[in-house]
Amino acid sequence: MKILLNPAFESLRAFVEMTPQIFDKEGYTIYKGRNEIKVLRVGETDINVKRYKVPMLFNRIIYTFFRKSKGLRAFTYPTQILDKGFETPEPIAYIQTMKWGMINYSYFISVHSPYSHRFYEFGNAHEGEYEEVIKAFARYTARLHNAQILHKDFSPGNILFDKVDGEYHFCLVDINRMSFGDVSMKKGCENFARLWGQTHLFRLLAAEYAKERGFDPEACTDIVLEARQKFWNKFRRKHQVKFDLDI
């Protein structure tokens, strides 16, 4: 078993070392799909533990010998984000278990974010609702992109937020797919495609984002709406869309 532990959390080493043994028995599940995420209480701290499924044989070879696993990327990327002043759960540890000399289950352990809202709630929002937070989010995303941070899975479940002391705060999660470098207008505007919401919210989002980054609002809006339509048309061929898709 391979363990990478954030030195700031040396006091949790015993808990980290026991995680593979206790994962199925303790805590409560907040997400279960291909992977499973649980919240466990250690002393006064709520801790997130994400267990990644065992990869298919080809990916087991790739992640064992040639490429960083998703969990390892999730453990190493937060430092780059936190160092630039953006919020993401502080990483505690990465665990990689082995079977037959190759990666088996892996775990990413982090501090649990207290933010209670996700972007799913914008799915069927009407005009007059959520405009304030959407504008704040557009400005936040512009700052994120100007800092050369691009979350490649910028989807509703991966953006947490709350209003704290009168200001909206945002927190990125599930950050194993990231890109660090210049973010062009096209890349930046296309980054919104996976979000839930009606057309009027995307127009507002595009206009505020363009204003913050000094882009042409009409050109940015066109890119946002085209990328949104392309993504969701492809998505609904195989999946049910859980909100009214007005395209």
Overview of the molecule:
The structure is a single chain. With 247 residues, the protein is α+β, with helices and mostly antiparallel strands. It has two domains: 2-111, Phosphorylase Kinase, domain 1 (2-Layer Sandwich); 117-235, Transferase(Phosphotransferase), domain 1, CATH 1.10.510. Helices cover 36% and strands 26% of the residues. It is built from seven helices and eleven strands. Helix 6 packs across helix 7.
- Rounded mean pLDDT is 95
**Which structural class do you get from the secondary structure elements?**
alpha+beta
Total domains: 2
> What does the largest sheet look like?
6 strands, antiparallel
Strand content: 25-35%
Number of DSSP E strands: 11
CATH fold name of the largest domain, please? Answer: Transferase(Phosphotransferase), domain 1
CATH class descriptor name of the largest domain: Mainly Alpha
Distance linking N and C termini: 49 Å
What is the string of helix and strand elements? EHEEEHHEEEHEEEEHHH
- Rg, rounded, reads 19 Å
Show unreliable segments. none
Our count of helices gives 7
Per CATH, which architecture of the largest domain? Orthogonal Bundle
